[in-house]
Amino acid sequence: MQDLDLIQRAKSGDMGAFEQLVFRYDKQVLTIAARYVQSSEDAKDIYQEVFLRVFRSLPRFQLRSQFSTWLFRITTNVCLTHRAKRKRHTHTSLSQDSDDEHGGSRAEAISDSSATDERAENSDTAFHVTQAVGTLSPKQKMVFTMKYYDGYKIREIAQMTGLNEGTVKRYLFAATRKVRTSLKDLL
Amino acid sequence: MKHNDYKELLHLSLYDELNEEDRSVLDGHLEGCAECRDEFEELKKLSILLSHGERIEITDQLLDEARRELRVALRLENSKRPFWAGLMEQFDALTSPAGRFALSGVAMILVGLTAGYWLFAPSEPTGLSGITRAVEPSSSQPTETKITNFKFMGQPLQGSDVEFTFDMVTPVHMKGNVNDVAVQRVLAQALMNDHNPGARLRTVSAIANDDVALKSSDTEIKAALVQAVKGDANVGVRKQALKALQRFPLDNEIKDALLYVLKNEENPGIRIEAIAYLQSPEFSRQLVDQDLLNILKEKMQSDNNNYVRTRVKHFYEEVQQQ
Question: Which residue from A107, A171, B105, B188 has the fewest beta carbons nearer than 10 Å?
Fold first, then answer.
């Protein structure tokens, strides 16, 4: 059954049709949210908020755009305005001079880890990457995670966020520069 | 092309967004520009580093949890929504702005007349599509309509005019037979929307009663039962809903619900019920698909209940032999 049919049925109160519509796209929605907030609990909150908004607004959805475009635009908007329920347990600064809870600078942390096993090293790198991505502005982070972690094309990100391609590129370049600076010691 | 333009191409190359023409332009530039070559190498290292970033894996379990929580939230949302709001939304979706304006006027008059009638007319028992609306002998007074969710709208109007909205809740006492379609509709709504698990349990038990003849055409009841089986927060309601669902012919929709139970239900007793229903003589070859086989295979290996694993294994073998 096409989206259009499901939308019409959902508009007339058919919850089964609404559920089918949700199931077509909800994994993508949850993935975008999880990559953005880096927390499964917060991702579930975003997921729920997205589909509640869809449910409330569906009767007014005029079918001028594709349902998926509209849905992902809601998803990115909800991500951008989401306030994390729980603060992440680590808040160390990534500034050049600071030492972190790992007991040294990032470069030291990695170089000293040559004696430890590879898993610990990867986990340490992952920690720093996450921290670096966490320093981005919400829009930069949204565009950056969609590109690097979800693998969307710039054109697709533009459609999903409602930004034009030039703006997406601008956010992406700025984000890459910022992350690159944050991780300079590891490069 | 300026040097900065090549830097942009470097980034686009990193994002795998370069077309063939731009790629060959960039390759040509890289051959002669050491600065850009160094930057390109660093960007490649950055890309590798980023691939080590933490990522939340979207497991089936996480997705199922999200879906289950959404169902509960939708049920609450549905129950909060006044009936006329849904009506207005459908009406919005169906009409043009001009028609909408005209129909709004008509609707307001009708609402006014109805409100006046309910508020001021003495109540009389009225028939509702085959349902006896029984009024208790002691309640011969006019039925008490409660006004809730009262809100003034927008800015204060001039003079003594006021504008507001409210919900009218009228207690209804119904007496009827569960085989009656109108009664079934009310029960289906209660099963999906009532906050009280005790009320939902009584509702689903009434539907599951052996004296009730459920027809495959009772789509509202069936949809409510499927929703309850998959997402009701109360284990008793899920169990009774599954029992009631077995009164319907086993079709793809029910098979999917049973597989969902088998995969996600925490209570082993309900999982056993689900597999028993799948194993019933009603099960036909037409219901076999890859999803079914995958779930059976997974459950016969990984279910934490020994009996469930054995039953699933038997069923899997039966299906394979069909």
Answer: B105
